Amino acid sequence: MTASIAILIAVSLIAKFLLKLPTLSTVAMIVASIIGAIPVALHAISALQNKVISIELLVTIAVVGAFIIGEYEESAVVTFLFLFGNFLEQKTLEKTRSSVKSLTKMAPTTAELVNEDGTTEEVDVDDLDEGDHVVVKPGGQIPVDGKIIDGTGYMNEASITGESTPVEKSIGDNVFAGSITDNGTITIETTSVGEDTTFGKIIELVEEAQDSQSPAARFIDKFATYYTPAVLIIGILVWAITQNFPLAITVLVLGCPGALVIGAPVSNVAGIGNGAKNGILMKGGNAVNTFSHVDTLVLDKTGTLTTGKMSVTDVTNFGKNKNEMMALLSAVENTSDHPLGQAIVKYTHDLGVTDDVKLPELDTVKGQGLVGQSDEFKILVGNERLMKANNVQITKEQRKAINARMNDGDSVVLMALDQELRLVVGVNDQLRPDAREGLQALKDAGLKRIVMLTGDNKVAAQRVAERLPIDEVHAELLPEDKVEFVKKFKEQGSTVAFVGDGINDSPSLATANIGIGMGTGTDVAIETSDIILVKSSFDALAHAYKLSKKTVANTKENIIIAVGTVALLLLGLIVGVIHMGSGMFVHELSILVVIFNAMRLIQNKSSKLDSNQVLKTAN
């Protein structure tokens, strides 16, 4: 329809200026006016039936008035520009929602189900149940959330985390619907399907967030409710005082707050769409607005500042061959599923040392470790209490090694053979490689205070804090203690964001002004947090903070542009340099400016840490 009006206007101008056919020119403008006015008028009538005085009513009155006084060119141009502005608005909103559309199109629809007899068949994803086994071949799309029970491979999880680098997955690792297997064939045991998967929840969450309103948008909606009738009254007063009907109609046209109405929603949708594209899920305009004002960031340690995965930091060997001792220790730890033990097993295997060692029968001593006794040797693996209980003497050199690990905040695993200490192994939860650079980026963006709250001991907590730009550390806290700290910071007048894993820290996430879940979209994180970082990284957290500030600033810019344009147009009308046609052109041009300004948010890119930064942080 907009295109047909444009063609008619072009025909009218050609007929008037080139063909010198004024009658044809006038007829073309009249037809263009009627075609354009009908949908605008119908929308205005529909709004009136719902007791709403809309912008379309202003445009309809203006077009009818221009038509009555014979200004057919003005009426045609007004309807064309108004409809063209709406067309651009819809196209922009569609573009900003492209992240959701692309996610929806990527949603898997079928799966290779493994039957009880070992055969496979292709079934609809909706027909799968929890506990079913599905096979995914190289290049295939993972159809469910689940755990790998057979096979290994690299997974492209860009649709879930926003990170394009493939992630290696093996038996026991979780995988997510929508991911792509770059190589390797895997068998997955299903835990969630369809809308219950992380992928499904991401789509639902982003759709809800983009439909929600920011405080600025709600204010503008309320403002427009009173603004439109006010412009109508002003137009009537102008006509009553001046008896100048064309002037009154022009006031109505120029008073249309089109750019003001579209400014806030398009900024909000563009900002949230950008976040979704980068693995950041923001629950609507309120979350964006509040996060932009955060001055205090409170973080959990384990699983947030650290990876949540234990690894060996140091091994000190006393006496015999180190590899032989590590093989023996790994064999013992392989009988347990304790995180410290599994870290040692992985470390040993990574060294290429086999742990195919014959062991005596092992007994577990609660809170201390494992004890094994055979005719050939006695082995003790555990903490220092186990050594003392079995009268193992610790030399000064060994004490120095133990203290060094403890001072670094490591958990210490000791192994003794025949009453002699042979190994001192430090195991720790590793700091996220991007934590320091990410936190510094947050401070550079305007964050005033960073606080770490943890249930770990003070030494371990302080060691982590020393390597990061953290202002306060509070250790040995229970979940309820963390909540009290968050409440205290809020009472002090701070706007607080709490970052946690969304499981143990859900009370603090709910208490803070903004709860931020760092994790792969767990149920608790999605329900409790206001912002979810699907890709657990601090560059994503820094990008989310900067993006929220830019989105709010962009909204304010759009409001200033819209209000300023209307003010300048009315001023130009008073001094006689603006008329209906030129005024409507400038008015619609302001809508374009607002739209293009908001679209800058879509292109705003997340800052990635380069390899040098990662190495610098790790050191």
Task: Describe, in plain words, how this protein is organized in 3D.
- This protein is an alpha+beta fold.
- A 7-stranded mixed beta sheet has the order 10-22-21-20-11-18-19, with helices on both faces. Strands 2-1-3-9-4-7 form a 6-stranded antiparallel beta sheet, with no helix packed on it. Strands 12-17-16-15-14-13 form a 6-stranded antiparallel beta sheet, sandwiched between helices.
- A hairpin with a 5-residue loop joins strand 1 and strand 2.
- The model is unreliable at 608-619 (pLDDT under 50).
Percent strand equals: 15-25%
Amino-to-carboxy terminus distance: 63 Å
Kindly name the structural category: alpha+beta
Task: List unreliable stretches of 5+ residues.
Answer: 608-619
- The count of helical stretches stands at 24
Determine the oligomeric state from the structure.
single chain
Rg from alpha-carbon coordinates: 33 Å
The gross shape turns out to be elongated
Mean pLDDT: 83
Question: How is the largest sheet built, in terms of strand order?
Answer: 10-22-21-20-11-18-19
Largest sheet: 7 strands, mixed
Count of beta strands: 22
Approximate helicity band: 40-55%
Domain P-type ATPase A: 105-207
Protein name: Cd(2+)-exporting ATPase
Organism: Companilactobacillus kimchii DSM 13961 = JCM 10707
Membrane topology: Multi-pass membrane protein
